[in-house]
Design brief:
Chain lengths: 195, 305
C-alpha cells in the first residue's frame, strides 16, 4: 500500500483522474443550458477538491499513511484550477466581462461575495505552493498562510448555500464534510492543550 | 417516443415546420391506432393561430421537455422528464369553486370544449434568468371564468396543483410546501393573454410540462404559470402563493417580469434564451407591456414585485 501510494505512476494516475471532469465537459453534450452545466460542474468540482485537500491530513493520521502528503499540493491546485474555470465561466460566459455589473454583483449579492472571497483566498495559496515558497516563507509562516484554505472552503459552501433556491441537500453535504474535517483539526489540538 | 436531440446544442434548433411535419406524420399514425386519446404525444386540433403569438423561433421540443422546473418531480431540471413519465393524468378533474354562481367540477374533456383551442407562441421567462419560446395549445382562462360567473366580491383567483407524494416521492426534498398554489388578480386572470394550456407543439402536454392542464401567464416569471391544476377558487383576498410563502423577500405575489427590479440574489436585467450563446436584454413585462401595462398603472412595481 505505502509503496503504491509513493509510486510515481500512482501520482500520474491521480493527476489524470483529476482532469476527467474537464474532459467530460469538453466531450459531452451539456443539455439545454450548457453554460449553466459548466458553471455547476466546475463549482462542484472546486468544492470536491477542497474537501479532498482538507481530508489529506486527517487521513494521514487516521490511516497511518504519512505518504499521502504527496497528494495534498496537487489536490489543492486542482481545487484552484476548477475554481478558476468556475470564475472564468462567470466572468466570460455569464457576465461577458461587463465590469459594472460584476462589481455590482460582488458588492451587492452575498452569494457572489462569498464565492469571490473563496476564490481570491485561493490565489496566494496557489502562488506559494512551491517548495521554494515554503523555504522562503519558513514553515511556520507558510502553514499559517495556508490556513486560509479553511476560510476559502467555508466561503465556498456559503456561496453554494446562498445560490440554491430551496433544495439545500447539496450545500448541507459539503458543509457537513468540511465541518467534520475542520473539527477534527480543532478537537485534538484543544485536547492537547488541556492535558 | 423520445424526440431526437439536435446535434449542436448551441444554435441548431430544428426548424418548426420540419419538426411539425415529422411529428404530424408520427402523430397521425398514433391517432389511427389509439383513437382520440388525451395522453402525452397525442395530436391536438388547433382551430386558429393567434395574433398574440410571437414570430420568434420556438425553442426545440427537446429543450422544452428536458429543462423543467417541476419541483414535485425533483429539483434538478432533468429530473421531471425522467420521473414524471408515469404520472397519472387521466381521469382528471378541475374543481371551479368559491365566489362564483356556477361552481362545478369539470372533467378534462369538458374543459377542452369550453372554447376553441388556439396555438399561442409565447416567450416564457424564468425567474432564474433563462427563457424559452413555447408554442402552447390552449384557450383563454377568461372562457372558464365566464362560465363560472364570478360574484362581485371575487377579486382574486387561487390555483392549486395536484399533489400526491406516492406519485411524487422527490417532492419531500424540494424545500417548498406542497400542494403548489398560485394566484392572480381577477383582472389579470381575465386578460386575453392568460391561457389555460393543454398542449404544446401541436400535441397534448408532456407530463413534465404540467399535464394535463396548466396556466400560462407570459408576462410573469414562469413560476406563476402553475402546472397540473386541480382547483381554481375565486376569492376576495389575495391568496397565498408557494414561492412567496417559501421566500417572501425574493418572490412577490405579482412577479411580473421586470428588468429593473432585481431578485435579491441576482440581476434580472438579462436572460439567456436556451440555445443562444449570448444573453439578451430582458423586456419589461417580458415584452407584453402593450397588453398588460395598464393593469399596473399607478402601482409601485418595486414594492409590488
Amino acid at each position: 500500500m505505502r509503496a503504491w501510494i509513493s509510486a510515481k505512476t500512482t501520482k500520474v494516475a491521480v493527476f489524470l483522474l483529476a482532469l476527467v471532469p474537464l474532459a467530460w465537459l469538453a466531450t459531452h453534450r451539456l443539455g439545454p443550458n450548457p453554460i449553466e452545466t459548466i458553471t455547476h460542474s466546475t463549482g462542484d468540482w472546486t468544492l470536491r477538491f477542497l474537501v479532498l485537500t482538507l481530508a489529506v491530513t486527517p487521513l494521514r493520521k487516521l490511516l497511518g499513511l504519512p505518504e499521502l502528503i504527496r497528494y495534498r499540493r496537487m489536490l489543492g491546485l486542482f481545487a484552484f484550477f476548477y475554481g478558476t474555470l468556475h470564475f472564468m465561466t462567470y466572468l466570460w460566459l455569464d457576465k461577458f466581462f461587463d465590469g459594472a455589473e460584476i462589481i455590482k454583483d460582488v458588492a451587492k449579492r452575498p452569494f457572489i461575495t462569498a464565492g469571490f472571497t473563496g476564490f481570491v483566498l485561493l490565489i496566494p495559496l496557489a502562488l506559494t505552493s512551491t517548495a521554494a515558497s515554503i523555504r522562503r516563507l519558513g514553515g511556520q509562516r507558510w502553514r499559517r498562510l495556508h490556513r486560509l484554505v479553511y476560510v476559502s472552503a467555508l466561503a465556498g459552501v456559503a456561496h453554494y448555500y446562498w445560490q440554491v433556491k430551496s433544495d439545500i441537500r447539496g450545500p448541507l453535504l459539503y458543509f457537513a464534510l468540511i465541518a467534520a474535517l475542520l473539527l477534527w483539526r480543532i478537537v485534538p489540538a484543544s485536547a492537547r492543550a488541556s492535558s | 417516443m423520445p424526440p431526437e436531440r439536435p446535434i449542436n446544442v448551441w444554435n441548431e434548433v430544428t426548424p418548426k415546420s420540419v419538426y411539425l411535419n415529422r411529428r404530424r406524420f408520427l402523430a397521425w399514425g398514433m391517432l389511427a391506432a389509439a383513437g382520440r386519446k388525451l395522453t402525452a404525444g397525442a395530436r391536438l386540433e388547433v382551430a386558429s393561430k393567434s395574433p398574440f403569438s410571437t414570430t420568434e423561433t420556438p425553442t426545440s421540443l427537446d429543450d422544452i421537455t428536458h429543462y423543467n422546473n417541476f419541483y414535485e418531480f425533483g429539483t434538478s431540471k432533468d429530473q421531471p422528464a425522467k420521473l414524471a413519465t408515469n404520472f397519472k393524468t387521466s381521469p382528471w378533474t378541475v374543481s371551479v369553486e368559491g365566489l362564483v354562481n356556477k361552481p362545478r367540477t369539470y372533467d378534462l374533456d369538458t374543459l377542452m370544449k369550453l372554447a376553441p383551442l388556439e396555438e399561442r407562441i409565447y416567450r416564457h421567462r424564468c425567474v432564474e434568468g433563462w427563457s424559452i419560446v413555447v408554442p402552447w395549445i390552449g384557450f383563454p382562462l377568461k372562457a372558464l371564468i365566464k362560465q363560472a360567473e364570478p360574484q362581485s366580491s371575487a377579486r382574486f383567483v387561487a390555483f392549486q396543483s395536484f399533489f400526491d407524494l406516492r406519485q411524487m416521492p422527490q417532492a419531500r426534498w424540494a424545500g417548498i410546501p406542497f400542494p403548489y398554489v398560485e394566484g392572480l388578480r381577477l383582472d389579470e386572470a381575465l386578460n386575453p393573454l392568460t391561457l389555460l394550456a393543454v398542449g404544446l407543439y401541436g400535441e397534448v402536454l408532456p407530463n413534465q410540462d404540467g399535464a394535463p392542464i396548466r396556466l400560462v401567464v407570459p408576462w410573469k416569471y414562469g413560476f406563476k404559470s402553475i402546472k397540473s391544476i386541480v382547483k381554481i377558487r375565486f376569492v376576495e383576498n389575495q391568496p397565498p402563493t408557494t414561492w412567496n410563502l417559501s421566500a417572501p423577500r425574493e418572490y412577490g405575489f405579482y412577479s411580473n417580469v421586470n428588468p429593473e427590479v432585481d431578485h435579491p440574489r441576482w440581476s434580472q436585467a438579462h436572460e439567456r434564451r436556451l440555445g443562444d450563446f449570448f444573453k439578451r436584454d430582458t423586456l419589461m413585462f417580458n415584452g407584453y407591456g402593450e397588453q398588460v401595462a395598464s393593469l399596473y398603472a399607478g402601482m409601485d412595481l418595486r414594492k409590488n414585485y
